[in-house]
Write a structure and sequence with these properties.
The chain is about 40% helix and about 20% strand. The chain has about 500 residues and is of the alpha/beta class. The strands form six sheets. It has a seven-stranded mixed β-sheet with strand order 14-15-16-13-12-18-19, with helices on both faces. The longest helix has 21 residues. It binds NADPH dihydro-nicotinamide-adenine-dinucleotide phosphate. The site of NADPH dihydro-nicotinamide-adenine-dinucleotide phosphate (NDP) has 30 residues, from helix 7 and helix 8. The site of NADPH dihydro-nicotinamide-adenine-dinucleotide phosphate has 30 residues, from helix 7 and helix 8.
Length: about 500
Amino acid sequence: MDGMMFVGGQWRKSGGGESFQVKNPASGAVVGSVAKGTREDARSAIDSAREAFRKWSETPPIERSRALLKVAEMVRASVGPLAKSLVLEQGKPLGEAKSEIGSFANTFEYYAGLVGRERGAQTPLSTGEGYFIVTKRPIGVVGAILPWNFPVSLMGWKVAPGLAAGNTFVVKPASTTPLTDLMAAELLAKSGLPAGAVNVVTGPGGVVGQELLDNPGVGKIAFTGETDTGKKIMEGSAKHIKRLTLELGGSDPMIVCDDADLGLAVEGATWGRFRNCGQSCTSVKRLFLFESISEEFTKRLAEKVRSIRVGDGLQSGTHMGPMHTAEQRSKVEDMVEDAEARGAEPLVGGGRPGGPDLARGNFYSPTLLGGVDYDSRIATEECFGPALPVFEVKDLDEALERANDTPYGLGSSVWTSDLERAYSAAERIEAGTTWVNSPPISRAEVPFGGFKQSGFGRELGVEGLDYYYETKSIQVLEYEKGKKWGFPI
Ligand code: NDP
């Protein structure tokens, strides 16, 4: 598949004849190359998806469900090569990569179970003249624009519910992580979906992504990525009033109360911030500790963070891989420097790790920062990497006020042994999800999305399926011969 993309159920070169390389974030080594798609390539993929839509949208639900289950089965059977490819292009440790592939399969199994299970409504008209029926129809061709941090699971979040509802896809992976998405597309094609039901067009966002926005043949855009890009996508979708779901950035608060199980919360903070090298939309990005437990908690967390082994994701014993790109690392370095210039102290880390093995990759040490000023960039912007600012608060009111003081509203967590306190905090945190005594774990059955500038619409759950449908109302009046409608002639 070197230098190729996947369109109409086949491997293809770019019409422009160009390709581009994909590099390993742990070493800079080239791990593959893919087609540099043009607008014409994107148009051709949209045509394939439109052709496939005719067949797929009319495929009986039971067959759609079986095809989705087959996808899950084939993906699970190929977890080894898929996960290895994901590590090589993205950088995450192999265990995390396997779990991401598992999550892709799981999403397909979940939506396979929902196909054909939806119930409509038949309701009397308020005037008693008859009734109306509400039905759901697939939208058509969906353009899925993906980021690099979870290239495979986030493809599943879009493609699985979208196919379940009867839509077809043109997927635009992030330019730095196209390889495993292409492998997944080939498995999808082998699992009984019509050729062209899921096309993957690799190439620059400003070219391939722009064609998905501009082309009237695409009915919906499902996007995950940065909030600023999301704003452009929203503007671009306006021209044809495309349906839209946006999963954008976050600056998730984690609040640890004085009655929390500290051991559990230390584990949660470590997993929540340093998994995927801190590059998750719902990573813990601001830690708020009640004063009375702050010292003890910080000590225990620092010990744990010091023990994180940084390395190549394919090396056994690696806990945390490199950052995805040198640019992403520079952004985190700038934020840490800014915090330090305003008086913050690194409690752990605060720079690049040493050693010749790590020098070629985009590594950054797991970092904890104390004494952080609330105006620091690391507190006011999204920090998409392994650096965690720790703040002390006197009580829940202060924690919530600080937690909500952000344009983002994606995830959040509260740690306490008092359920009433947990509910009260969850109600008051302005975020799409609040985890209670748990790090941020997304599940196929739970709707996911953001408040405020973290997004628009929901993915996953029954709610996620609804975003791949148009709602159609059919009004049926009782037949009355000679009935007049009131127009005065
Ligand atoms: P970007 O927004 O830079 O890119 C996301 C995708 O959009 C890529 O495929 C990119 O293509 C494409 N793109 C870029 N510009 C355009 C354009 N003008 N028109 C159409 N498509 C375009 O995000 P990142 O990939 O850098 O992902 C990291 C960000 O995503 C973080 O801020 C993170 O918080 C957020 N995120 C949010 C999640 C959520 O669920 N809320 C989940 C994961 C990440 P190309 O690669 O070719 O530039």
